[in-house]
Automatic annotation (TrEMBL):
<feature type="domain" description="AB hydrolase-1">
    <location>
        <begin position="185"/>
        <end position="472"/>
    </location>
</feature>
<protein>
    <recommendedName>
        <fullName>AB hydrolase-1 domain-containing protein</fullName>
    </recommendedName>
</protein>
<feature type="compositionally biased region" description="Polar residues">
    <location>
        <begin position="510"/>
        <end position="520"/>
    </location>
</feature>
<feature type="region of interest" description="Disordered">
    <location>
        <begin position="492"/>
        <end position="520"/>
    </location>
</feature>
<dbReference type="InterPro" id="IPR000073">
    <property type="entry name" value="AB_hydrolase_1"/>
</dbReference>
<feature type="region of interest" description="Disordered">
    <location>
        <begin position="22"/>
        <end position="57"/>
    </location>
</feature>
<feature type="compositionally biased region" description="Low complexity">
    <location>
        <begin position="38"/>
        <end position="53"/>
    </location>
</feature>
<dbReference type="InterPro" id="IPR029058">
    <property type="entry name" value="AB_hydrolase_fold"/>
</dbReference>
<dbReference type="Pfam" id="PF00561">
    <property type="entry name" value="Abhydrolase_1"/>
</dbReference>
<feature type="compositionally biased region" description="Basic and acidic residues">
    <location>
        <begin position="496"/>
        <end position="506"/>
    </location>
</feature>
Amino acid sequence: MEEMRRGVPTWQEELASLMDGGLQYDDGSPIGQDSRSGFESVVDGSGSGSESTESLKDQVTGFMKSWGEMLMDLAVGCKDVVQQTLVSEDSVVVRKLRKPAAKLRFLNEYLPEDRDPAHAWPVIFFVFLIALAALSFGSDNSTSVPVLKKLRLHPPGASRVELPDGRYLAYQELGVSSDRARYSLIVPHSFMSSRLAGIPGVKDSLLKDYGVRLVSYDLPGFGESDPHRGRNLSSSASDMIDLASALGIVEKFWLLGYSSGSMHAWAAMRYFPDRIAGVAMIAPMINPYEASMSKEETAKTWEQWPRKRKFKYFLARRWPSLLPFFYRRSFLSGYLQPLDQWMSISLGEKDKHVMRDPVFEEHYQRNVEESTRQGTAKPFVEEAVLHVSNWGFSLPDFRLQKKCKANGVLSWLMSMYSESECELVGFGKPIHIWQGMEDRVAPPSVTDYISRVIPEATVHRLPNEGHFSYFFFCDECHKEIFSALFGEPQGPVELTEERTETHEPDQPEIGSSNTSTTKG
């Protein structure tokens, strides 16, 4: 029994074996006084068979190395899992993306020959993200950031008329009353504008001198006008005619289109020419994809615009659903951004001088507040899409020309000696165009194209004028416009005098002159 116990280690022997550099009992003798003295010598480090104790620094270093090795093994394992489940030829992701990716293989031609597309494109993608983040959040500490004004919501108070389809259209009237108006002038507003624009800064005294009743209105979805589903240029022209009828303008009226508002003036000229007495356009805009423009005219027009503006035209034509993203980051953000910033245009010095005027700043803010009253991007997207879509007509349609009903050679020969079978088609009313030669929004090349396809139009080329400088808060400019349209001022119609709303002022014969220069 005693021999069997000698083969089993005692608890003192097990404790000694667990010690770091623990005690050794080579002779197998029981623990006694000598053994305890040996234990003390080992702890003190004086024993001949002992080793030095590991420091805390060495323990931390070993711990970190072990964790690093574990993380490396984990990363290698994750990489293998990703390659086997996502990148392999049999994975679900690769099978679904194989066909769309095949359409983009042509992009590999732009990579260097020694670059593997599988490695190059991820690098390009991440570099693009980094650059985009730098452009979005980076700022130059040496330049001051302007404080943006917050847009306010004003209580409604516009006059409105009900249209035949039940919608309501908001409008504003200036000048003389309807019973004393010698001329009625209707103004459709431009993009990001409202009925409050009209003719910015026009004097009431000037309107009375010429007997003008000035009517401006909110396009559908803008200001206080109801939206219109399926809006197009034909419905826009119908809204204008219905508004005129509701306001008692039963005879011919004049049109004034500024910037993109000229698009709606073109539509009224096309669909209701008999209701129009004449047209004035300031810095007119056309469809930038107009098919009747020559390659030189198209190139000359597009080269005037920066890439950001070209990109927005491209989105409006191809992916208009992306436009709200940009609109909500600019004029629909609730804050008033600088005009040239959201227009993506570097304006000329004269336009910048006008924009720094406090009167202009107040007008601009109030106009934007009214334009964005409904808080939705839909009417702005509709307006942008209308601008670049097929209008349903072309500007050469307004050119005056004879159209003969010749069904054969004999009828054609008879038409040469008799005009009974011929009629004059086109727009035969006065067309006046004012174009600033320093305009960078609607460049002069646009007016050059209009002058080519509609030679009957009278073009007033304005040296040193921009997109805003001639039309906004310029009393002399407004007087020149009215003088060209209406001749000498005759004042309002007296109650005993026959109204001359349908009588056009003395105009030069159509085709006699197509250009004139005013206001140097």
